[in-house]
Specification:
The complex is a heterodimer of chains A (about 120) and B (about 120). Chain A is mainly beta and about 120 residues long. Chain A has no helices and 12 strands. Chain A is globular, with a radius of gyration of 14 Å. The relative contact order of chain B is 0.33. The chains are: A mainly beta (about 120), B mainly beta (about 120).
Chain lengths: ~120, ~120
């Protein structure tokens, strides 16, 4: 079974500063994908960034980047130049490639950007 | 691309009643997923369809739950004899099944309250 652990239930960051959200996972799969999703208050969940497990290079999307450590099964999200609109729940997700591409989500980290 | 839509947004029902939710995925997406999310938790997988075939069901999906996707387009999730423990946000998501790294696109969810 796959498990995804987010050990930081809540975090806060000053506007324009940098924050890192942690995520670890456990799997016996060798090939998989990892995602970070953002869920703003009362709004739908949207994709922030994705990472293929077979790629060593860390993914980046504008102000968002990941630190993927496959051996350690760690997948942290770094948000640079934090903006008020980044306030949301952030979920780390694991997708296995076999049997339906099922996604497994962590419990989330609530991020508040302080003006 | 109108996104994934779910109806209704909110449903309040009395214990013991049946409820049905509808999800319309993005039109070209052949995979459709149902997730349940309770307060403070990440989404938990319930079931998924590829086209009209229901390929996987979670053990969370008791006999009171049934999902259909009759023509491979919209899907319905029915809960019979609702219980207070069924109160949650029910999320629908869709993806392009042919792409290994296809992320999930989520709807706004249906919030169920069982009184």
């Amino acid at each position: 079974a796959q498990t995804v652990t987010q050990s930081q239930p809540e975090m806060s960051v000053q506007e324009a500063e940098t924050v890192t959200l942690s995520c670890t996972y456990d799997t016996s799969e060798s090939n998989y994908y990892l995602f970070w999703y953002k869920q703003p208050p009362s709004r739908q969940m949207i994709l922030v960034i994705r990472q293929e497990a077979y790629k060593q290079q860390n993914a980046t999307e504008n102000r968002f980047s990941v630190n993927f450590q496959k051996a350690a099964k760690s997948f942290s999200l770094k948000i640079s130049d934090s903006q008020l609109g980044d306030t949301a729940m952030y979920f780390c997700a694991f997708m296995k490639l076999r049997a339906g591409n099922q996604f497994y989500f962590g419990t989330g980290t609530s991020l508040t950007v302080i003006p | 691309d109108t996104g994934v839509s779910q109806d209704p947004r909110h449903k309040i029902t009395k214990r013991g009643q049946n409820v049905t939710f509808r999800c319309d995925p993005i039109s070209e997406h052949n995979r459709l997923y149902w997730y349940r999310q309770t307060l403070g938790q990440g989404p938990e997988f319930l079931t998924y369809f590829q086209n009209e075939a229901q390929l996987e069901k979670s053990r969370l999906l008791s006999d009171r739950f049934s999902a259909e996707r009759p023509k491979g387009s919209f899907s319905t999730l029915e809960i019979q004899r609702t219980e207070q423990g069924d109160s949650a946000m029910y999320l629908c998501a869709s993806s392009v099944g042919t792409a290994y790294n296809s992320p999930l696109h989520f709807g706004n969810g249906t919030r169920l309250t069982v009184t």
